[in-house]
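It is worth pausing here to work through a concrete case rather than discussing structure prediction in the abstract. The textbook approach is simple: state the sequence, then state the predicted structure, then interpret. We follow exactly that order.
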Amino acid sequence: MTDILTRRSVLAGAVAVTLAGLSGGAIAATPQQAQDMVAKAIALFEEKGQAAFAVFNEGEASGFVEGEVYIVVETVGTDAKVVAHATNSKLIGTPLTEIVDENGKAFGLEMSQKATADGGWFDYVWHNPATDKVQRKEAWAVLHEGFVFLAGIYVE
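Step two, the predicted structure:
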């Protein structure tokens, strides 16, 4: 019996290592994780107001970066810009008209203009630091009190 359990454990370990290798060593994020990140960010915003943006901007220490999923907040309107970014503080203050993907799509501006309180998915291509490739990405974006809260996942 112990021999059978040992073989099963070794086999399970081998499968886990193989699957990790096939996925580039990391398990892909899920749409639910992006939606949960946005909900978590909105909850902190409800508690702290715009002071929450400083928390989001703390990067890994903020609690708003989980693997490839991280929070971004944008303003809305004709002069829409990034006001919080958990992984790239250089983008804070950047007008959304200046942020385009490899295909020239101004995806941030699109989210700023089309996001609703019910939330929705938006797609674009972006550099994935985990794979060092440009990949298709989908972001869950929710309009809340004049700001768009978003988090995305790579889908290819």
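Step three, interpretation. The beta strands are 65-66, 69-70, 72-75, 82-85, 120-128, 133-144, 147-154. Residues 2-25 have pLDDT under 50 and may be disordered.
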